[in-house]
């Protein structure tokens, strides 16, 4: 599929992207190709020089040519100067310290957009909640982006979509307008909880898929885990106030499929190494970037227990990480140790956390795809 011609840069549409890893650099490219005036902040000066002068980020996006008008800097002050929208793509566990450093440099009216898919380990807070806690900013000026977004594929301009979520539909629409081009389409919704938790939870299921892949189990096993994992994701997110249809959309099902099945996924790769017998510390050493699925297991299970939500697949991932469960044993215990028959949907066995709405949510999601995203919530 041939990408459409990129529109010219629109003067005055000034945005900053904080974090020059694979996703931060890719998103800076998305914005630049959509017409924005983008400055990308890289912590390392040598990386900023390579991006600005060589139009490459060889560490994270080998072989990708970056837009000529994409600028990079190692100065946080220069990156943020005059930026009306600030897209943040740093490791979730370092978000708080980065926000503290950026706080006094931000335009008072800037919109802050999270590109991250994790929860803060110490607090269990979602990324938008950390942003709202650290910065003097109203929820209406915070947004989150999620979806099936494997960075290298998008950097190669392979067509995909994402969803922009904010408490303010107007804010979500403003961000989505910038984050749209010939190969990247942004939809919108106002379900920030579901959008963010979808991005977090799919990482954990992707680790489970990687584990059984590493063990050598086949497509039936992986399909079963994806399907049952989506139920766990939906039950959890709905218990925290999400709309179930969000989990059947781009931020849930879409992201789950991409992350679970692709060797480009860090979470899938980490799981596969675990399934092959590597220990947790060895896996962490082999991963070039932060693997959010590994660091989010503990906080997510604590949040699940607080709401009485059962997440047996995620619990088994935790046991594999701890070395108390043989990776080969994760599949026979897909849902529970009980031999009593259970309903496939949570409504069938009396648990009303939200999985019962899955079929309706699937239908709505497919209807939206068929109709080009024109639904009551837009995504």
Element-by-element helix/strand order: EHEHEHEHEHEHEHEHHHHHHHHH
- How much of the sequence lies in strands comes to 5-15%
Helical content class: 40-55%
Second rung of CATH, namely the architecture of the largest domain: 3-Layer(aba) Sandwich
Quaternary structure annotation: single chain
- Please state the overall shape, judged from the principal axes of the Cα atoms: globular
| Alpha-carbon distance between the two ends | 23 Å
Radius of gyration (Å): 20 Å
What is the assigned CATH homologous superfamily of the largest domain? NAD(P)-binding Rossmann-like Domain
The spatial strand order of the largest sheet comes to: 3-2-1-4-5-6-7-8
Number of helices: 16
Structural class: alpha/beta
Name of the CATH first level of the largest domain: Alpha Beta
Q: Which spans have pLDDT < 50 for at least 5 consecutive residues?
A: 1-12, 347-357, 372-379
GO molecular function: glycerol-3-phosphate dehydrogenase (NAD+) activity; glycerol-3-phosphate dehydrogenase (NADP+) activity; NAD binding
Subcellular location: Cytoplasm
Biased composition (Basic and acidic residues): 336-351
Pfam families: NAD_Gly3P_dh_C, NAD_Gly3P_dh_N
